[in-house]
C-alpha cells in the first residue's frame, strides 16, 4: 500500500532564491512548494554556496557532522535547516566551505572553466543527502534527483545502500532538465564513488566515450525517469542532436521515461502582483504594460525622461544564458537586419565570452536601439518581461523553457523555434483563423528566424489583431496544478515499480 502523504527527498544544485543560473532553480523551488502544499513532507538538499550566505538567511545549525569518503579522501560536512513558512518545506543546506563557498556555482568566473573538483562536489551532495536522512532518521519514500549533479543518488540507492534496510522502500525519480550537461569526468572518478566491487563488471552503466558519466549512470539506475516536456522526452531518444550521446541509453529505458511539463509559479511571475515591476497590470489594463515599457526605454536611454511616445515602435526582449543552446548565433546572423528596422531591443544574458563580446559589439553598432546587459539580473528580467512587446527565444533545443511561459503571461509575444517545450507550449499565429499565441519557426535557420520576426513586426502594426494576440497568450495557464499531479503519479509508479523487469545497461552487463 502506497502512503497518502509521502516523504520526499529532493536534491538539486540550484533552487531559487538561494542559487540559480537558469530554469532549474525556478522549477525546484516551485515544485517543492506545491508538493508541500499538498501535505507531503519535502526536504530539499542543496549546498550552502556563497550565494546562500549572501542571502543573509538564518538557518538552524544541526550541530552534527558526518565524514564522507570520496575515493581516498574524507570530507566533513555539517548541515543547517531552514523552513520558509509560506513555502512549507524544509531546505537542508549542506555545509562544506572548501567545496561550496565559491564565487559561482559551477565554474571559475576568472577562467570560465568548470571547477576541476566538480565530481567531488556533487558526489558529496548526493551522498550527504542520503547520509543526513539516516542520521536524522527521516525515511524518504521518494528520492527525487535533478540532472547530473544529483543523479548519483539513484545510483547509490541501488548499489552502496541496496542492502540497507533504512532505504529498503525508497524509490527514485530522476528528472532530466537538460541532457546536454552530463557530468562527464576522467575515468579515475569512478573510484571516487566508493562502490568498491559494485561498479566493476558494469562499467558500461557508468561510462560514455571513455569517461565516467554521472547522468548516464543516473539514467541507468533511476527507478523512473522524467523529462520536462512531452516533446523533449521523445527528442532525447531519437538523435544525437538532442541526446548528446545518451540516446541509446535513454532508448533502453524508454518504458520508464515520462514527461511532466514545468509549470510557472504565478506567485512570482504574474504582472498583476509582481513587486519588481511598476505599475502592475493585467490583460484588462494593458496601459500598465505601456508604462513599464516607457520606464525601461528611459532607463536604457532610448528615449528622454518624460518624452512623449507618439509612434508605435516595438520593444523586443530576450533573457538567456549565453550558450550555444539558446540560438544566439542565429540571432547574431540577422541582428543587423532586425535592428535596421523600426524597433528597440534589449538582450540580458550571462555565459560564454564569445556571445557577450558579440552582443557588446552589436550595441556599439546600434547604439540608438540596442542594449546588451551582460550579467544575471533578476529584477531586470522581470522588467523586460513586463516591457517587451516581443520576446525572442530561437533555441537550438529547449527541454521546456520558462521564459516563453513568463512572456505569454506578461503579454510579450514569443518568437520561438519549434523544439522541445517551446513546441509544446507556443502555437503559431494563424492570420486566417486568428488563432495562435506566438510566432514559431521550424528549422534552425536564420532565414526562418528573420521571417518569423518580420511576421511579428508586420502584425504589430495591426493594433487590434496584436492586442487580441497578446490577450490570448495572457489568458493561458501554465500553473503547476497539473504537473504536480503528474509528479505524484510518477512517485506512485516508482513506489510500485518492479525493478527486476527494468531493462537497463546495469542489468545487461550484470547478466553477461
Ligand atoms: P534555462 O533553464 O535553459 O536557462 P529557462 O527558460 O527554462 O532556460 O529558464 C531561464 C530562467 O533563468 C528564467 O527564470 C530567466 O528569467 C532566468 N535567467 C536566465 N538568464 C538570466 C539573466 N542573465 N538574468 C536574470 N535572469 C536570468
Helix-strand layout with pairing:
Blueprint: E1 7-11, H1 23-37, E2 41-47, H2 50-55, E3 60-70, E4 73-83, E5 90-95, H3 97-100, H4 118-135, E6 142-146, H5 147-158, E7 171-176, E8 184-185, E9 207-208, E10 211-213, H6 214-221, E11 224-227, H7 230-238, H8 240-243, H9 247-252, E12 257-259, H10 287-299, E13 315-322, H11 328-339, E14 344-351, H12 353-365, E15 370-374, H13 378-387, E16 390-393, H14 403-410, E17 413-417, H15 420-425, E18 439-441, H16 446-460, H17 463-475, H18 481-496, H19 505-511
Parallel strand pairs: 1-2, 1-6, 2-5, 6-7, 7-11, 11-12, 13-14, 13-16, 14-15, 16-17, 17-18
Antiparallel strand pairs: 3-4, 4-5, 8-10, 9-10
The CATH architecture of the largest domain would be: 3-Layer(aba) Sandwich
Spans with pLDDT under 50 lasting ≥5 residues? Answer: 507-512
Mass-distribution shape: globular
- The neighbouring-strand order within the major sheet is 3-4-5-2-1-6-7-11-12
Specify Rg, calculated over alpha carbons: 23 Å
Amino acid at each position: 500500500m502506497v502512503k497518502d502523504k509521502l516523504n520526499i527527498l529532493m536534491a538539486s544544485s540550484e533552487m531559487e532564491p538561494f542559487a540559480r543560473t537558469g530554469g532549474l532553480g525556478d522549477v525546484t523551488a516551485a515544485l517543492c512548494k506545491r508538493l508541500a502544499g499538498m501535505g507531503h513532507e519535502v526536504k530539499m538538499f542543496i549546498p550552502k554556496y556563497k550565494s546562500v550566505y549572501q542571502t543573509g538567511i538564518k538557518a538552524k545549525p544541526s550541530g552534527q557532522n558526518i565524514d564522507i569518503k570520496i575515493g581516498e579522501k574524507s570530507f566533513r560536512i555539517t548541515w543547517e535547516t531552514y523552513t520558509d513558512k509560506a513555502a512549507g518545506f524544509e531546505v537542508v543546506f549542506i555545509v562544506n566551505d572548501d567545496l561550496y563557498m565559491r564565487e559561482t556555482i559551477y565554474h571559475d568566473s576568472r577562467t570560465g572553466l568548470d571547477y576541476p573538483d566538480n565530481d567531488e562536489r556533487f558526489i558529496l551532495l548526493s551522498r550527504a543527502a542520503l547520509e543526513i536522512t539516516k542520521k536524522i532518521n527521516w525515511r524518504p519514500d521518494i528520492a527525487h534527483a535533478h540532472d547530473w549533479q544529483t543523479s548519483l543518488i539513484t545510483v547509490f540507492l541501488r548499489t552502496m545502500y541496496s542492502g540497507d534496510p533504512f532505504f529498503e522502500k525508497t524509490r527514485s525519480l530522476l528528472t532530466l532538465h537538460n541532457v546536454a550537461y552530463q557530468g562527464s569526468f576522467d575515468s579515475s572518478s569512478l573510484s571516487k564513488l566508493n562502490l568498491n566491487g559494485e561498479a566493476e563488471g558494469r562499467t558500461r552503466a557508468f561510462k560514455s566515450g571513455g569517461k565516467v558519466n554521472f547522468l548516464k549512470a543516473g539514467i541507468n539506475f533511476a527507478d523512473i525517469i522524467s523529462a520536462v516536456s512531452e516533446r523533449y522526452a521523445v527528442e532525447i531518444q531519437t538523435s544525437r542532436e538532442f541526446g548528446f550521446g545518451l540516446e541509446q541509453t535513454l532508448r533502453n529505458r524508454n518504458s520508464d521515461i515520462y514527461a511532466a511539463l514545468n509549470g510557472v509559479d504565478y506567485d512570482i511571475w504574474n504582472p498583476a502582483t509582481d513587486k519588481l515591476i511598476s505599475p502592475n497590470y493585467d490583460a484588462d489594463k494593458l496601459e500598465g504594460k505601456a508604462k513599464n515599457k516607457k520606464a525601461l526605454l528611459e532607463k536604457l536611454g532610448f528615449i528622454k525622461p518624460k518624452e512623449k511616445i507618439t509612434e508605435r515602435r516595438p520593444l523586443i526582449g530576450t533573457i538567456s544564458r549565453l550558450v550555444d543552446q539558446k540560438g544566439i548565433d542565429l540571432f547574431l546572423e540577422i541582428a543587423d537586419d532586425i535592428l535596421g528596422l523600426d524597433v528597440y531591443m534589449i538582450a540580458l544574458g550571462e555565459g560564454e565570452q564569445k556571445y557577450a563580446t558579440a552582443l557588446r559589439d552589436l550595441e556599439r553598432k546600434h547604439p540608438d536601439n540596442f542594449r546588451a546587459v551582460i550579467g544575471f539580473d533578476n529584477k531586470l528580467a522581470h522588467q523586460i518581461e513586463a516591457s517587451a512587446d516581443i520576446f525572442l527565444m530561437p533555441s537550438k533545443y529547449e527541454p521546456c523553457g520558462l521564459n516563453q511561459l513568463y512572456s505569454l503571461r506578461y503579454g510579450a509575444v514569443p518568437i520561438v523555434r519549434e523544439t522541445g517545450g517551446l513546441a509544446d507550449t507556443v502555437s503559431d499565429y494563424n492570420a486566417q483563423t486568428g488563432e495562435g499565441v506566438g510566432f514559431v519557426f521550424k528549422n534552425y535557420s536564420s532565414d526562418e528566424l528573420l521571417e518569423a520576426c518580420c511576421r511579428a513586426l508586420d502584425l504589430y502594426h495591426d493594433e487590434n489583431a496584436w492586442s487580441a494576440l497578446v490577450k490570448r497568450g495572457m489568458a493561458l495557464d501554465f500553473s503547476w496544478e497539473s504537473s504536480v499531479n503528474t509528479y505524484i503519479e510518477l512517485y506512485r509508479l516508482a513506489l510500485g515499480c518492479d525493478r527486476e523487469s527494468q531493462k537497463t545497461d546495469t542489468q545487461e552487463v550484470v547478466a553477461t
